[in-house]
Structures are given as structure tokens and as C-alpha cells.
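Re: that backbone. C-alpha cells:
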């Protein structure tokens, strides 16, 4: 009698354990999605305005800008570091100089970037060198065609699905000792330029 009762109790225990294991196997498992990563190469386009004086970027002395960029980011924790090459057409933004004015036509820049990521949002600063192509304007008979300067800026970028991201960026470019010649003689002027632009990047 006791032997038979023991067998029944053992069988019931095995059935309960087996059912619990089966239920555990059928229960859904949660895997935390991987954190977003900014690391990798990207290419993109941008457009905006190149202006000469604050605070109005849309005055008639300014020009609409547009161009392309390519770069590479490395992310360590929330910190993001990168480098970027950029080329822009500047739409003849004008700068007053002795005897008249000169115009900006093109700019190429090599920039370093550093920022903090908040998942798919990146806030960054940038600094580097820029080569600006100038053209003579009203009252100026000649000017330096290309001149090296420096660039500092900041921006914010928002990533989306499919490798796309959108950014807004402000840059200040200082080009020292731009030489011009006019009826008043030869002069050298430090040129300060501003760019406000929006862009789209595709990350590989």
C-alpha cells in the first residue's frame, strides 16, 4: 500500500516539474535592443546661408550656400570623435574692404569633431582649417584668389532608421590677411565669415 502510494506521489511530482519546465520554455524572453552607435563612415549634402555680419543671416550682402561632406566617427561610451572633409559653394557673400568689396565663392574645410550622444541625438563641436576662394567685387581691382584660415563651430544631429541622419550646424571662419588692391592702394584685411546650414548624412 505504502509502496503504491509512493509511486503515485513521485509520478505526480514529475508531472508538475515537467509542466513547469514546459511553461518556462514557452514563456517569452526579453532581449534588450543594442544601444545606437554613431561609429562608422558617412557621406552627405548640406545647404544654408553664408553671411558676413551678425545677427541677420538673410541680408542682401549674403549668399546661399550648398555643398557635400564626408567623414568618419568613432564612439566610446557616450563620447563621439570624428573627422570630416567638406566642400561648399558660397553664393558670392560680400565683405567690405578698403576701396570696395570682395566676394566669397568656394570653401574647402578639414574639420575635427567631438561630441556627446544621447542615443540617436548627437551634440557636437568642430574645429579645423578652411581654404576660401575670393573674387574681386565693386571697387577692387585684384585680391588673393585662395586663402587659408581657421574654422570653429557647433551643431546637433538626429539619427533615423536606415542609416540616415539630419543635422543643423553653425560655423565661424576667420581668414587673416586677405590682400586687396583698389584705387586707395593695397590693403590686408582679416575676413570673418559665418555659415548656418542644414544637412543630411547617410551612414555606412
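Recovered sequence:
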Amino acid at each position: 500500500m505504502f509502496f503504491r502510494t509512493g509511486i503515485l506521489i513521485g509520478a505526480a511530482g514529475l508531472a508538475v516539474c515537467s509542466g513547469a519546465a514546459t511553461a518556462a520554455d514557452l514563456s517569452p524572453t526579453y532581449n534588450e535592443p543594442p544601444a545606437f552607435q554613431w561609429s562608422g563612415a558617412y557621406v552627405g549634402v548640406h545647404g544654408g546661408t553664408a553671411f558676413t555680419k551678425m545677427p541677420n543671416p538673410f541680408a542682401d550682402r549674403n549668399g546661399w550656400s550648398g555643398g557635400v561632406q564626408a567623414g568618419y566617427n568613432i564612439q566610446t561610451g557616450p563620447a563621439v570623435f570624428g573627422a570630416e572633409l567638406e566642400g561648399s559653394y558660397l553664393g558670392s557673400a560680400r565683405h567690405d574692404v578698403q576701396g570696395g568689396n570682395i566676394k566669397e565663392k568656394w570653401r574647402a574645410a578639414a574639420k575635427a569633431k567631438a561630441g556627446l550622444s544621447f542615443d540617436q541625438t548627437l551634440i557636437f563641436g568642430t574645429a579645423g582649417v578652411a581654404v576660401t576662394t575670393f573674387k574681386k567685387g565693386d571697387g577692387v581691382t585684384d585680391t588673393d584668389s585662395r586663402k587659408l584660415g581657421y574654422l570653429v563651430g557647433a551643431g546637433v544631429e538626429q539619427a533615423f532608421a536606415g542609416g540616415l541622419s539630419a543635422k543643423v550646424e553653425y560655423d565661424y571662419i576667420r581668414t587673416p590677411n586677405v590682400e586687396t588692391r583698389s584705387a586707395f592702394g593695397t590693403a590686408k584685411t582679416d575676413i570673418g565669415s559665418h555659415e548656418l546650414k542644414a544637412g543630411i548624412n547617410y551612414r555606412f
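The chain has a mean pLDDT of 86. The longest strand covers residues 79-97.
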